Amino acid sequence: MDNAEEIYKAKLERLETAAAAKEPDRVPIAINTTYFPAKYAGVSYHDMFHDNNKYIEVMAKFARDFNWDGYNSLRSFESVPLGLALAGYDADLAIGVAVSSVLAGGASHDILADVYSSNPGREVGKNVESQFVMDKPVMNDDEYDSLIEQPFEFLMKTVVPRAYKNLANLDSPTGVGTLLKMGQELAKFPAFFGEFIGKMKEEAWLPWYLALTPNPLDFIGAWLRDFDKLTLDLYRMPEKVKAACEALTGVLAAVGKLTGTISKNATGSRRVFCPTWYNTYLSPEQYREFHFPYIKKIVNELVEAGFTPLLCFQGRMDHLLDTLTELPEGKVILWFDKTDLSKVKEVVGDKYCIAGGILSSLLISGTPQQVKDHMKETINKYKPGGGYIVTTEFNGMGDAKIENVKAMTEAVMEYGKY
């Protein structure tokens, strides 16, 4: 791409200006595409997931052809608990392990044999997206005290052997061999990361997000207890749940800052992805007691360290919107999944950047003209005053039609200019 460096800088400024709730030169478009670039390039999901060369190839092609302000197709998250278990030993190693599955694909899944994920060409078909579900908890309801008192030791000695079948016995040949194989795979990561970033920058690519950190309650639900069991814990042992969240908050904030530093140094992006999953299922009282205090602490730490939290409120947030104004104004991006952005704007006004507005169903089943009409209406509604980023529902590309994604892109370029 001609003048890639200038285009790259313009995208960076455009996104940062919007994040500050101000008017950039154009409404930015930034989306997490999951496997859509593979579909667009005519490559199987399996190949994109397991073949790093194919991954770079389809990512670069999509960046070149669509020229969005930010996009990413991160692959999976199964190595996060192992990485977190190592955080008390070596922070750099811990981050390397945690992000290895996020960027480096299916090797971690194959080596560790985790209980979390079903991936293309393995547990599911070659063109089926990754699924992330626990069959049973890897932490029991009587183990909260161990997590609270010694989180790193508990994760390594109790959670890791349960979460990774090949690490079930760390003293066995299988256990030791698995760790050695994982070490060999991690040794390849710096070269792959350097090649990936270099080739993507040639296409003026900027990530929607590269850094990430979960919050305590969602970490417990997604990686330790499963959400159905955690729901019971909120009633049966509320004080232990809160103590566990308190114990994890500082650790997860540190993860956000460490990955944020990697992202900023490599790409210039200050955004740190902060997903929120459990909000839909909590009453306002439960959200304020068990969820929001720890989210807010992590957000404030990230902002103080110079990062921009990208808060992705998945599911519905309508009943919790009053909490948003407690977050730092002009310092965060509020990304909504199924919540009506008009209701959000009524609450936050022009003091916060909001992201969303594109329906997966429209991209999947609509026509290009319907997409373009929707885009025109949405952009005209939310662009005045700045602070708006066009994006889809989380992981909302799915089975979108290629012609509809093109229509969406064209509409942003046509109607998004200030």
Notes on the structure:
The chain has 418 residues and is α/β, with parallel strands linked by helices. It has a single domain (4-76, 190-415), classed as Alpha-Beta Barrel (TIM Barrel). Helix content is 55%, strand content 9%. The chain is built from 18 helices and ten strands. It has helices at 4-19, 36-41, 45-50, 52-66, 80-85, 91-104, 107-112, 144-149, 151-163, 173-201, 216-225, 227-236, 238-267, 284-304, 341-348, 360-365, 368-382, 402-415, and strands at residues 30-32, 70-72, 117-118, 131-132, 211-212, 271-276, 308-313, 333-336, 353-358, 388-392. Helix 15 (341-348) links the parallel strand 8 and strand 9. Helix 13 (238-267) packs parallel to helix 14 (284-304) and helix 17 runs parallel beside helix 18. The longest helix is centred in the middle third of the chain and has 30 residues, at 238-267. It is globular and about 60 Å long.
Helices and strands in order:
Layout: H1 4-19, E1 30-32, H2 36-41, H3 45-50, H4 52-66, E2 70-72, H5 80-85, H6 91-104, H7 107-112, E3 117-118, E4 131-132, H8 144-149, H9 151-163, H10 173-201, E5 211-212, H11 216-225, H12 227-236, H13 238-267, E6 271-276, H14 284-304, E7 308-313, E8 333-336, H15 341-348, E9 353-358, H16 360-365, H17 368-382, E10 388-392, H18 402-415
Parallel strand pairs: 1-2, 5-6, 6-7, 7-8, 8-9, 9-10
Antiparallel strand pairs: 3-4
